[in-house]
Every structure is written in structure tokens, then in C-alpha cells.
Write a structure and sequence with these properties.
Helix content is about 10%, strand content about 45%. The protein has 1 helix and 5 strands; from the N terminus they run ββαβββ.
């Protein structure tokens, strides 16, 4: 399941949520620190499995 990273526009907290693509589209995300709904999705890191037991990660 994807990990989404958010930045709160009210208090500046950066937090992550694990949710499916459908949950992401249907859910109103709020900040766990201050409860504000003024949050923006941030670009996070990406990890890709390229072979048996081998992972490569890259920050995008």
C-alpha cells in the first residue's frame, strides 16, 4: 500500500499516511498535530523492487 506524505499549512507538521489509492481519493486528510484540514501532499521517496531480494530507492 502506498505511503503518502503531507505538510500541514497551519502548523507546519510533516506526517505520513498509509492508504490505498481509493482511500486517498475519498478521504479528507487532517493534521494529527493540530487537526487542520489545510494539508498538502508532498513528494516523498520511491522504492522499486528490481530483482529477487533487491531494492533500489530514490528520492524524487
Amino acid at each position: 500500500m502506498p505511503v503518502y506524505e503531507f505538510l500541514c499549512g497551519h502548523c507546519g507538521d510533516v506526517f505520513e499516511r498509509i492508504m490505498s489509492l481509493s482511500e486517498m481519493q475519498e478521504t479528507k486528510v487532517s493534521c494529527p498535530q493540530c487537526g487542520s484540514g489545510d494539508v498538502n501532499q508532498q513528494l516523498g521517496s520511491l522504492s522499486v523492487k528490481v530483482g529477487i531480494g533487491e531494492y533500489r530507492g530514490k528520492v524524487v
